[in-house]
Amino acid sequence: MKRVTPESYYRTMILKTQIPLLIAVTSFVSAKVDFAHEVLPILKENCAKCHTNGKYKGGLSLDTREALLESEVIELGDSQNSLFIKVLTAHDEEDRMPQDAEPLPKGDIAILARWVNEGMAWEKGFTFKNRTWKAPLGHQRVELPGPEGGNPIDRIAADYFKKNRIQSPAAISDARFLRRVSLDLVGLLPSKSELETFVASDLGAKREAKIKQILTRDLDYADHWMTFWNDLLRNDYAGTGFIDGGRRQITGWLYLSLKENKPYDQFVRELLNPTAESEGFIKGIKWRGNVNASQVPEIQFAQNVSQLFFGENMKCASCHDSFINNWKLEDAYGMAAIIAGKPLEMYRCDKPTGKKMDAKFLFDELGSIDKTSSRDDRLKRVAELATAPGNGRLARTIVNRLWARLMGRGLVEPVDIMSNRPWSEDMLNYLAWDLSQNAYDLERAVSIIVSSRTYQSATVIAAKSGEDFVFEGPSAKRMTAEQFMDAVWEITETAPDKIDAKVDRGSEKARSVRASLVKSTLLMRALGRPNREQVVTTRPAELTTLQALELNNGKEFVNYLNRGATKLFAEKEMVENLYLEALSRLPSSLEKQVALKILGEGVTPESTADLLWTILMLPEFQFIN
Fold first, then answer.
1. Which of 233, 322, 450, 518 could disulfide-link to 317, CB 3.0 to 4.6 Å?
2. pTM greater than 0.90 (yes/no)
3. Residue 4 scores a pLDDT above 50
4. Which residues pair with 348 in a beta bridge?
């Protein structure tokens, strides 16, 4: 054992006492630790060579967040009791990490300790493992396995289940199917009469017929999918930039595109080479005052186009060569120069480099952009390249987003890192190829998915996650804020009087107001509706403290309950009707007994509000299961 000198001992003791103070001070004056820019460089420099990519000294793997947690050296929220932090300050040189190196600077240790205390945030999809699989760019033809006929998704899934020795998930009832498919396609609960008629029908292909019938409801479809696309295109009805002209809505164009089921390749071309009605997306947000070089509108264009259409994260590369993928600063500025219409000076970490970058498409193997062309011609060219027949990434990215929306998890995860390997290459490639061969018809793609037995199966909780994920069936999904609000408004008959979105829905008096078409409220924001100043491709699925507070005693939600209760408390068979409307089933005898006890002998608006709250808080109501 090496001798511990008094100097090294006292230096270590002083360091240990200083770290908590430094953590407290820096936590008070700064934002949360940035994984990509603060934590990752420390791990790469000091830890990666011994604990990543197949070399795991002491059994410690830093390959992924999951692997680090499984190594049992982290106590989330408690850095002082985490071995991961303790070994950095050990006074014995043989125990201290990194070994055979100078002690880590106290500032770096403080960053890692804060990171642990804050929950150890990790960049989605990042791994230290070297990638051995490369995502193809072009379309890949798939030979469907199994006997001829049947839904192609089921044929691919059956072959996958067989190879992975997985029991196919059980089928769901007609009632559960109708609730799921109605919420997924048009965002609404089925009515009581619709449910009763469907369940009673003995038509052989009634599910396929119902899917077709729901998809003919073009206004309901457009109302619902506005939520999905507003998040992706960061379009909203109020917010930063709209008043002073630094931001423009594309609401009218978007709604009409959804209503008409505009072919997706045309949809993309009209966003990248826009008209006056659709230019708001590439225009971005012109922030007031001085902004970071990575947040100017031209760089926003590079980030948003790469993320939305191709599933590539360019945010890190907009500041410097990326730590989390292979994109370089030149790639981000090459995309930015397209909309700038001229070469752009590159800034590295907000400092000018003195170098300029001219227009370059993200996947230059698809073609080049004439550097002498005008801004308008550059946009026309980038729209051509994005939707070129050889660009299979466009179709793969959108079908992966649709699969994630309908099945609860993407074929590729995270959905914005399409360079990750899908759990089924055949499924992803088939759906993308089929979309491209059928006029980029998104409604058709959605219909194929929801018509499959795979979609119409019982939800499961995956046994494995991350790179080890194995598909065993669809996952339950939390209602979006908009779905929850629409359901509450329908059950309590408390929808607002008018919409805020400037869209053509025919006679507004004949249509219900939908949450996707009104400005966000505190309750919606608590339920996960974003402010849409950034591209949002997935919303948080976890329950938050703010949600719990708003759903327990928030003024807005309580108001809906009380107003609804005054209309419902005298209704006959109220309990049965509420269960049918909210859960698409009748209550069990025990549930009815509990409900009647909540209502009391003399039913009042107050006791009715209590029953409404009880039903609306059920996970069965809040999840699409």
1. 322
2. no
3. no
4. 351
